[in-house]
Known about the structure:
The complex is a heterodimer of chains A (498) and B (105).
Chain A: H1 9-18, H2 23-37, E1 44-47, H3 49-64, E2 77-80, H4 111-118, E3 125-127, H5 161-168, E4 174-179, H6 185-191, E5 194-197, E6 217-222, H7 225-235, H8 253-256, E7 265-269, H9 279-294, E8 298-302, H10 310-325, H11 345-356, H12 359-372, H13 377-398, E9 404-408, H14 424-429, H15 435-440, E10 444-449, E11 463-469, H16 474-487
Parallel strand pairs in A: 2-3, 2-4, 7-8, 7-9
Antiparallel strand pairs in A: 1-3, 4-6, 5-6, 5-10, 9-11, 10-11
Helix pairs in contact in A: 2-3, 10-12, 10-13
Chain B: E1 4-6, E2 9-11, H1 14-23, H2 30-47, H3 82-86, E3 92-93, E4 96-97
Antiparallel strand pairs in B: 1-2, 3-4
Amino acid sequence: MESWLVRPISEIAAAVTRGDVSAEEIARASLAAIEHKDPSLGAFLTVSADAALAQARAVDAKRARGEKLGKLAGVPVALKDALCTRGVPTTCGSKILARGARGWHPPYDATVVTRLKEADAVLPGKCNMDEFAMGSSTENSAYFPAKNPWDRSRSPGGSSGGSAVAVAARMTAGALGSDTGGSIRQPAAFTNVVGVKPTYGRVSRFGLVAFASSLDQIGPFAVDVRGAARVLEVIAGHDPSDATSLAEPVGAYEAACGKSPRGIRIGVPEEYFAEGLEAEVSASVRTAIDDLARAGCLIRPIKLPHTAYAVATYYILATAEASSNLARFDGVRFGLRVEPPRGTLADMYGQTRDTGFGDEVKRRIMLGTYVLSAGYYDAYYLKAQRVRTLIRRDFERAFSEVDLIATPTSPVPPFRLGERVKDPLSMYLADVYTLPASLAGLPALSLPCAPTAPREDRPALPVGLQLMAAPLDEERLFTVAAAFEAVSPARSLALPPA
Amino acid sequence: MPTETVKGQAFLGEEEVRKVAKLARLELRTDEIIRMTAELSAIVRYVQKLGELDTTDVVPMAHVRLARTVLREDAPRAGLSHDDALAEAPRVAHDGFAVPAFVDD
């Protein structure tokens, strides 16, 4: 039965729709895979077996009644634990949302969760993540680190590491993550799956625990480009509950996967092939770009001169926004409360937050509070907002000459657990290639290209190719990604060791 | 100025970190203050890299696409029920959220 989970989303949905297999059988296969594999991977924080089986049976009953099934009929989709789920605990990877053993139970479903359910998907559980999505390795989870299925001594990336691992290890066919500065793309690259960060505003964030509201965006993971396209079609679109959600119609993303990439102009920015990029990653990505040229794309060198300033810009703006967003965790209305005897309200706030937040979250709240505080606002926060404009202008100029931009997703292959977590700045610098698209609000995806060669000290490791597009040009992104996928050497690395 | 300058590079002192922690409502322990002072100093030094750029005439960008605030139709609709809102409260009294007594601080 587990063999169903190695198949792409479109095949699973088609098989359930035809009645070749029941949604319940697929759900049981997914739950069995989680039970068997997850103890050594740490991808899930909560497994909601009863709810998943009930959803699956409802899909089967719908089919038995002769009703038309949705695009994700019976497809198991894992959810990053930053997404609110009614009836299922939501921790955001933090102890501050785990009051006692019970965990926080949100009073509503996130819009993306509602849309997945409406499309007849089955939701087996909530995935591990860096606390409040702050991190690039899933080591900042308040519970346990997630492990890379290709080498369990290495990180699967982050912050949506659990979601990526759920798909990479074929525990679920799809997953949702959130991406504020690369938190979908980088773990996709580290685990050899496809991960998409849509245009800012394309997917409703209603019910996503907020980190940095001018950057946060929800997106899918899948083993193939077409599967990711289908999930995005399901979750995208206007939502009156999110004031930043865009009214523009949703594109035909899955249909775009079958189109010819001929004549599409692809820019290659020299700034993304500079110091700090591991030679093998560079070679793999350059080979992928050669493959795109052979597929009929037109390759052009471009310049994105402010790339080197993205990390500094991001860590000012994202922390400033986080310090404000995380003010709501005060012990009053939900989650943890630490109330010292005869203490004041201020004591309760301070002790609840000191006890409930982990080190990285405190660090970012502190940095964000600092850059917004009197005397520093202009020098840091306003300055970073101005540089953000320069970064966006770089892209506007580039997209007047090319249609897409191709780069590495990460400068390095998956690093070892513990290698960077003690040095916050080195962890931040791992996001250097994914931050610019976030700051400019662009759609971007990561898909597998040739893995590194196995060495004495490490096995073959996944490498991600990042493609970026102009706002709302997801369709072209999927066209080129699907064309590359068809010839990608990463197929030789299709399944992680059991 | 609590931020000191050494060879042109600003860094944070422990006093300043304590002040920021108070603003952020984080009751940090002394060992956390010491560690945070070093870590934040390193990050602040790094982000000063932005000072290399002349941004005199550049408009600050707060948001990607939000040109105006979107308003929904001004029609009443059901919100969270009272029971749902209180269901996760750490302490409830008189049908509301209970907090320690406070005057002003």
